[in-house]
Amino acid sequence: MKILRTAQEGLSSLAANPLRTFLMMAGTVVGIAALTVIMAIGKGTESQVMRRVENFGPRAMMLVAGGGRTIGPPDSTVTTLTLDDVRAIREEVPGLEIVTPQAWLSGAGLRYEAQQIKATLWGIEPEWHEAWNWHTADGDGISHEDVATMARVCVIGSSVKRDLFGGADPIGQTLYVNKVAVQVQGVLERRGVMGASGGDFDNRILVPITTAMRRVMNVDHIGGVRIITSDADRMPEQAEQITQLMRARHRITPPVEDDFRINSPLAIAEVVRGTSGTLTMLLAALAGLSLLVGGVVLMNIQLISVAERTAEIGLRRAVGATRNDIFTQFLTESLSVTLLGMILGSALGSGISVAIRQLTSMPIVISWEPLALSLGFALLIGTFFGVQPARRAARLHPVAALR
To answer: 174 to each of 22, 165, 272, how far by Cα in Å?
Structure first.
């Protein structure tokens, strides 16, 4: 009961000086709010990484033209990746379930009657549908016969269907891809947008890879190869085999850099985590600095408070309060300030996190971990920076304090 009464006196003192209390908790509020936002972004990034790995395919790899970058589209200036490379991979690297080439052309001009749009052109083989688990919702996909005959046919995404044909049935209609006439024979399943980048998966058109290379793009190289392994555990070994094979075929020797790269779920995860990790570390350092500054401010204001309340302390000692009572009162004030700052900071951080999620495309996940960590920080800061003022107050001699 005595401890509770002493704690109540400490809280009453805080309530009697709201401005001082606010100044003491300001740093804690900012630091805890920043910590809450950081952890929400970190959790969201981790969730996004797992979704990207799942979307990419746990047994999938992409051999892409152009070295240097870890992820991203192929380098259109690199022309060394060819269909012969695809055949070599199929023949010389064991344990691969699907090896299917792809040709890309961003911003291809599509026209149907008076309607004109830009879309991404993909030149593919029939295995593409299985490799990406992306099939047609209506009509037919690209067939081996289409590839063999350089057929003037296409499969369009749902966004292309909407923008060019409106509510009309596009199957059997002829549209133009960079002035090359192709007949629509299928419409892809809808996929939506690609997460934070906001790109439209469905704004694309598929044609046989031979049609893309010979009739539309007039090239003899490809942009990449989608590879599905039969055993995910063998992926690192197979990636190394493909790397050595491509180096040999492209006559690449040290110190010349590779003119290709291999993307895998692990590579994607490492890049995303590395980027978000750097940002998280920077923000965490700022949050830690804010908490440290808040603790120092708390200690200094409490020391000033001790000096201002010397008479009060002396009077309490004179009427029977022990040093432990005084110590408990001032430490309770410090802990109360940091705990209240933790509550306000957590609420502020959660509100900011929700606002970020609503106003931007950043991945945000709000969980209970920041609250537990914030509670630990609040207790640590309140205790560490509150002990010195509490000890100074407790050591005041009642007679000297009353002078």
So the answer is: 70, 11, 41
pLDDT of 111 reads 95
| Model confidence at 320: pLDDT above 80 | no
What's the token pair of residue 58?
């746990």
- Asked if 201 and 157 touch (Cβ cutoff 8 Å), the reply is yes
Is 199 buried (19+), middle (13-18) or exposed (0-12) by CB count in 10 A? exposed
Residue type for position 261:
R
pLDDT given for residue 1 in this prediction: 45
Residues 6 or more apart whose Cβ sits within 8 Å of residue 117: 109, 110, 160, 163, 164, 203
pLDDT, mean of residues 72-94 = 87
Q: How crowded is residue 8: how many other Cβ atoms within 10 Å of its Cβ?
A: 12
pLDDT in tens, 35-74: 788 778 777 777 776 776 777 778 899 999 887 655 566 7
Residue 66 CA to residue 84 CA, distance in Å, equals: 17
Strands 180-188 and 174-177: antiparallel
Chain segment 338-358, per-residue pLDDT in tens: 888 888 888 888 888 888 888
Q: Taking the domains of the chain in order of start, what are their residue ranges?
A: 2-51+270-402, 79-258
Q: Pairing between strand 174-177 and 260-263?
A: unpaired
Amino acid in the structure at residue 220 = D
Kind and range of the H or E run holding 115 = strand 115-124
Peptide bond into 255 cis (omega under 30): yes
Its pTM stands at 0.64
- Could you tell me which residues come within 8 angstroms of residue 142 by beta carbon, excluding any fewer than 6 positions away? 124, 125, 126, 128, 129, 153, 155, 206, 207, 208
